[in-house]
């Protein structure tokens, strides 16, 4: 693949990750841990980042999850 397409895909990826930050920043504190509709927003955001990290690994044997300490993101 040409350098141009690598650069384009890289910018799109960065934009997608930055867009995930919008709902995290906009979420009111009282809804961050709300389980009314099932899963909390912090858990959805965490899983999205976790699996993004997983799928960017060379292979699943090389994947090493980060130690989050189970802290919330906000």
Describe the structure.
With 74 residues, this protein is an all-alpha fold. It has one domain. The chain has three helices and no strands. It has helices spanning 3-26, 29-32, 41-56. The longest helix is centred in the N-terminal third of the chain and has 24 residues, at 3-26. The chain is flat and about 45 Å long. It starts with a helix and ends in an 18-residue tail after the last helix. The mean pLDDT is 84.
Short structural summary:
The chain is mainly alpha-helical and 74 residues long.
From the structure above, extract its key features:
74 residues; mainly alpha; single chain; 3 helices
Proportion of strand residues = under 5%
Main pleated sheet: none
Which range best describes the helical content: under 10%, 10-25%, 25-40%, 40-55%, 55-70% or over 70%? 55-70%
What is the alpha-carbon Rg in Å? 15 Å
Write down how many β-strands occur, each being a DSSP E stretch of 2 or more residues. 0
Taking pLDDT < 50 over at least 5 consecutive residues as the criterion, the unreliable ranges are: none
The span between the termini is 38 Å
Number of helical elements: 3
Q: Which sequence of SSEs, written as H and E, runs from N to C?
A: HHH
Anisotropy-based shape:
flat
**Structural class designation:** mainly alpha
- Domains, number: 1
Q: Give the overall pLDDT as a whole number.
A: 84
């Amino acid at each position: 693949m040409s350098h141009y397409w690598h650069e384009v895909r890289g910018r799109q990826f960065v934009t997608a990750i930055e867009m995930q930050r919008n709902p995290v920043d906009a979420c009111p504190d009282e809804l961050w841990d709300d389980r009314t509709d099932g899963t909390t927003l912090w858990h959805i955001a965490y899983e999205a980042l976790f699996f993004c990290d997983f799928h960017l690994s060379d292979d699943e044997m090389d994947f090493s999850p980060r130690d989050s300490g189970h802290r919330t993101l906000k």
